[in-house]
Amino acid sequence: MRLTAQDFASRAAGAEHVCGACGFTSARWFGRCPECGEWSSARSSATSTSSPAITSLVHDGPPPQRVATGMGELDRVLGGGLVAGSAILLAGEPGIGKSTLVLQLMDGVIAQGRRALLMTGEESVAQVALRGARLNVAADRFLVAASSALEEVLAASLSQRPDVVVVDSVQTLRDGGLEAAAGSVLQVRECASTLVAHAKQTGTVVVMVGHVTKEGAVAGPKALEHVVDAVITLDGERDGSLRTLRVSKNRFGSCTETGVLKLGASGLEPVEDPSAMMLADRLPGIPGSMVFPCLEGSRPVLVELQALLTPTPQAQPRRVAIGVDGRRLTLLLGVLSERCDESFHSQDVFAAAAGGLAVREPAADLALSLALLSAKSGVCIDQTITAFGEVGLGGEIRRVPATQRRVDEALRMGFRTALVPRGSERSSSGMEEISVGDIGDAWHACTGT
Q1: Is residue 198 within a helix (H) or strand (E), and if so which, with residue range?
Q2: 60, 106, 284, 307, 394 from 375: Cα distances, Å
Q3: Contact at 8 Å (CB) between 192 and 144?
Q4: What is the DSSP string of 73-97?
C-alpha cells in the first residue's frame, strides 16, 4: 500500500478521520466512506500526544458521594444510589414505563432538597405535566424544558446547576455541529460522549433514557453502552403489571442485583415479597405445574412453571413459550422424547412462567421438564415439591449455583421437599433435599413411579 503525503501528515499529527454520515473511523483520509458509501464525508480530528499523569491504585480520599432516589428497588440495583458525576443509561422497550420511572426518580431526589432537571425531546412540557399529576409528584419544584438540541441541554444544565439531569431520550438529541440526523449512529455516540464529559466536569448525575430495538439491544451504537458508567434495563410484559430492573454494567456497584416493581395507577411500586406475589394465584391439583426457585440477580424468587399439551392434526405441531426460553423448550422436548420415551410429535406444547416474570436461566430445565411430564401423563405433582437443575442432552441433571439461597426461599414459602442435582452442596435449612442424577430419577421422586 502506497502512502500519500496527506497520510504521513495525518499520522504525524495523530489525526483520525471520521465519517460525518455513519461514524466510520480511519487513520487514513478517504474520499468515499467504505462503510456507507457517502462521498466527501471525512472529517479530521487531531488527537493529543501528551503523556497522561501516572499514579498508583492507592486512594485515601472519601468514597463516592451517592444521591438516594427514594426508590428502594432502584437504589438496590445501583448499589446504594446515584453517584455524583456519573452517567447512567436507562433502557427499555417503548411503553414499558421508563418515563414514569425517571419522574419518580426525580421526585425522590427533589424530596431530599436537591435539584433535578428534565430535558424532554419526545414530549411537550404539558404532556409531562399530565403524567406528573397522575403520579402526584412535587410539580411546583420540578425543572422541565422541551428541547432536542444538545447545546440547549448543556446550557440549561450549566445555568440551573441541578444535581441530576434526565435526558428523555438520547435518540432525540442532535448536535448542531454534525450533519447527521438525530438518532443516527454518529449523533447518538457524540451526544452521549459530550453528556458523559459534562457529568465528569460538573459532578452532575446524567441519566439518559434509551430505546430498545426489536432484538432487545439498546438502539444506537454499542459504544453508547461502553461510554456510560451504568446500564439499567427496565423489563416486563407490556400488557402486564410486573417490571424488573436489571443492571448489565455498573462501575460503582454490583451487576448481580435485580429490582422488582409493579406498575399501578400511582406509578411503579416496589414488590417487597416477589415470591408471595408470584404464587398468590396458584391453583392446587392441576397437572403440568411445577415451582422453580429462580435467581433474579442475587435474590431468589419462586416462579410457577406451567405446561399444557393439546392434540393437533397438523404435521408441524406448535411450540409456544411465554416467559421461558423457546429454544430450551425445544431442547427439553427432544431430551424427553429420546431419554424418557415420551412422544410429543402429535401435540401442541405450551409452556409459560406464570406471573409475568421472564425465566431465562438453565437452572429452570428440571422444573420445566417435570411440568411437561406431568402435563403429558395427567399426574399432579405434590404442591410442596420444588426443583431446580440444568438438563443435559443425555438426560443428566447438572449442578447450578446458589443452592442454599434457593432452598432457603422455598422453605420460607412453605415447601417441604427440594429436588436438587446430585453432588450439590447440602443446605443447612432443614428442607428435605432429594439428590437426582437424571430426569427419570426426578420423575420417580415426584410420583413414586
Answers
A1: helix 185-202
A2: 61, 48, 14, 6, 22
A3: no
A4: HHHHHHTSSEETT-EEEEEE-TTSS
> Which cell is 122 given?
419526545
The domain locations on the chain are: 5-46, 66-272, 276-447
Q: What does the alpha-carbon distance between residue 419 and residue 441 come to, in Å, rounded to a whole number?
A: 10
Q: What is the pTM (predicted TM-score) of this model?
A: 0.78
CA distance 351 to 167: 39
One-letter amino acid at 252 equals F
What CATH superfamily is the domain 66-272? P-loop containing nucleotide triphosphate hydrolases (3.40.50.300)
Comparing CA positions, the residue from 2, 44, 49 lying closest to residue 25 is 44
Task: Per residue of the chain (449 residues), give pLDDT as tens.
Answer: 344 444 434 444 455 788 877 778 887 888 888 888 888 788 776 555 567 778 887 866 777 788 899 899 999 999 999 999 999 999 988 889 999 999 999 999 999 999 999 999 999 999 999 999 999 999 999 999 999 999 999 999 999 999 999 999 899 999 988 888 888 888 998 999 999 999 999 999 999 999 876 555 655 556 688 899 999 999 887 777 889 998 989 999 888 888 999 998 889 999 989 999 999 999 989 999 999 999 987 889 999 999 999 999 999 999 999 999 999 999 999 999 999 999 999 999 999 999 888 898 999 999 999 999 999 999 999 999 999 999 999 999 999 999 999 999 999 999 999 999 999 988 777 899 999 999 999 999 998 87
Q: Distance between CA atoms of 206 and 209, rounded to whole angstroms?
A: 10
Domain covering 276-447: architecture: 2-Layer Sandwich (3.30)
